[in-house]
Design a protein that fits this description.
alpha/beta, nine-stranded mixed sheet, two-stranded antiparallel ribbon, 11 strands
């Protein structure tokens, strides 16, 4: 059984993100980059399935510039067997384009299961897994907080409003991971060194022959407004009046 795990290179979650002065995007100069946290959870789950004897091969794939090699080496340090980098001239492919690229990769690799983060922390789109499943015509289990695979079936416990819901998916399928699924392992130095010797294939994304044209464009990026100081009120009536007429939250 083969599992495909897409991983994305993003600004590290500990870094305070700042927009560029001209508002054209986020300033990533000298910023620490790392694997998207939700993708770390997906990679950890794939490795647990492999260590449990359910999965034979784990393949990591990333889409973007050559710098994404570092992210893929981290995936190999997790324990992935090999990695694939699809190089393009931008790292800002929108979800619909990513879904096309991944669908082409799935057609070549023929995995039994795709496990991916539910969203990336840079754009928070939460769309790629759903789009990929739709393109492939596969069952999907989104927001997974528990995953069991056996007898050609994946049982996914999903986080929903007010609780959880368990669905059974016939393989092949697409699963997107939520925070409660697992806690990713700490990467040890011996595994990081071993990852340098594992195969990492690099190909131009244009070779896949998919439409890479964008349907949307970023108009501007701005920091959220500064939070104002608190205000002391004299009575409950005044508080309710401010909440209703100024804050407009009731």
């Amino acid at each position: 059984m083969k599992v495909l795990v897409p991983v994305k290179r993003v600004v590290d979650y500990n870094v305070r993100v700042r927009p560029r002065p001209d508002g054209t995007g986020v300033d990533t100069a000298h910023a620490k980059m790392s694997m998207n946290p939700f993708d770390e959870i997906a990679m950890e789950e794939a490795m647990r399935l492999k260590e449990g004897g359910v999965v034979d091969e784990v393949v990591a794939v990333s889409i973007g510039s050559g710098d994404c090699q570092d992210t893929l080496r981290s995936a190999l340090a997790f324990g992935a067997d090999r990695a694939l980098l699809l190089e393009g001239d931008t790292t800002d492919f929108e979800p619909v384009v990513i879904s096309r690229i991944l669908a082409a990769v799935v057609a070549e690799e023929a995995p039994d299961l795709v496990i991916m983060g539910k969203q990336a922390i840079d754009d928070d789109c939460n769309q790629t897994a759903q789009m990929l499943a739709g393109r492939l015509g596969w069952g999907q289990g989104t927001f997974a907080c528990r995953l069991e695979v056996q007898d050609g079936e994946a049982r996914v416990t999903r986080e929903v409003d007010g609780g959880t819901r368990t669905v059974a998916l016939s393989l092949p399928a697409v699963v997107s991971t939520d925070l409660r699924l697992n806690e990713p392992r700490y990467l040890k130095l011996p595994n990081i060194m071993k990852a340098k010797k594992k195969p990492l294939d690099r190909r131009p994304v244009a070779e896949l022959g998919v439409d890479l044209s964008a349907r949307t464009r970023v108009v501007s990026v701005a920091a959220p407004p500064e939070r104002g100081p608190g205000v002391r009120v004299a009575s409950v009536e005044e508080l309710l009046d401010r909440l209703k007429n100024e804050a407009q939250v009731i």
